[in-house]
Amino acid sequence: IMKRLFYRALSILLIFVFLIGSLASCGNSKKKIVIYTSMEDYGIEYMQKRLNEQFPDYNIVIEYKSSGEHAAAIKASGKEVACDISHDLEYGYAQEIAAMGTFADLNGVIDMSVFAEDMVESTYYVPQVRSGGAIIINKDVISKKGLKMPESYEDLLDEQYKGLISMPNPSSSGTGYMFLLSLVNAWGEQRAFEYFDKLAENVLQFTTSGSGPVNALVSGEVAIGLGMTHHAVTKITDGSNLEIKFFEEGSPYSVYGQAVISGRETDEAVMEVFKFLATELTVENNELYYPERLFKDKQISIEGFPQNIKYADMSNNTSARKDTLLSKWKH
Question: Which residues pair with 35 in a beta bridge?
Fold first, then answer.
């Protein structure tokens, strides 16, 4: 009998220890928040570091997806998507998803008045970064081949530049598309497409990615590239002999935003993280990596980055317009 009582007491003790351990485990589990982002590696690394510092009691998971994959994942799953926050999503995609009702209305949650007027187009997503383009020159190639420095888009049609220009393909690159849209807005569709037909005769290749032209410039394959300003600044800082030029039509640009999935705005933890991203981290990224004008009364300066940039007209940047222009580009 004593033996039986001993084993019964031992069993009860083991059950008690198990229950205590389970409760402790539940008590120590962290709130999980998932963020989809299309930022570059260094930006993700910095964001994860800052979020871990700011929210040690949350398990914040950042998942990288290219812009197309990012948008497709949210459009496919709608409000049931695995992420709580969409971060660094190009405005064209953000506009589509907001129209589907998948993003929460952030009116009154974030003070939109701090942003430059051309950065705000909806209360369903908050401006995060402006990323502009430029005409970038390899000065060594220009000098070596005895070429004139171009001063306008029309100059790029000169036969002296044949095979020495690189541009991203608008069909596969957001950077290429923003150059296309900027000239369509500046000149009208007919003149713009006639221009690109002529420019193609001097283009060595239409690259699949926005970074392609700057990479071709650095390797000396071409003399002129239509590329991203911040990418060129990085290469210049690393020692490449490049020059950044903006023509009369201004710097074409893309805007990227951040949003909360509809239904998650009632989750205090999600909103706490989102507010930090949309305010403090947006400012930090602007100061560290993307100094192009985002805020109304705040002009960031980074050594080597062009100042007082004149921006192109990027109006009517809708998904319907994009489909129309890309269909025409392909034909």
Answer: 62, 85
In order of 1, 12, 21, 153, the CA distances from 8 in angstroms are 11, 6, 20, 88
Exposure string over 227-240, b if 16+ CB within 10 A, otherwise e: bbbbbbbbbbeeeb
85 and 259 in contact (C-beta within 8 Å)? yes
pLDDT for 170-215, tens place per residue? 987 888 999 999 999 999 999 999 999 999 999 998 998 888 999 9
Other CB atoms within 10 A of residue 19 CB = 10
Rounded Cα distance between 21 and 30, Å, is 16
Q: Which pLDDT score, from 0 to 100, does residue 320 have?
A: 86
The whole-angstrom separation of Cα 199 and Cα 246 is 17
pLDDT of residue 300: 84
Find all residues with CB under 8 Å of 162, minimum gap 6, and list them. Answer: 201, 202
Beta strands in the chain (DSSP E): 31-37, 58-64, 85-90, 126-138, 165-168, 203-207, 224-228, 242-245, 253-260
Segments of the chain scoring below 50 in pLDDT: 2-3, 5-7, 17, 20-27
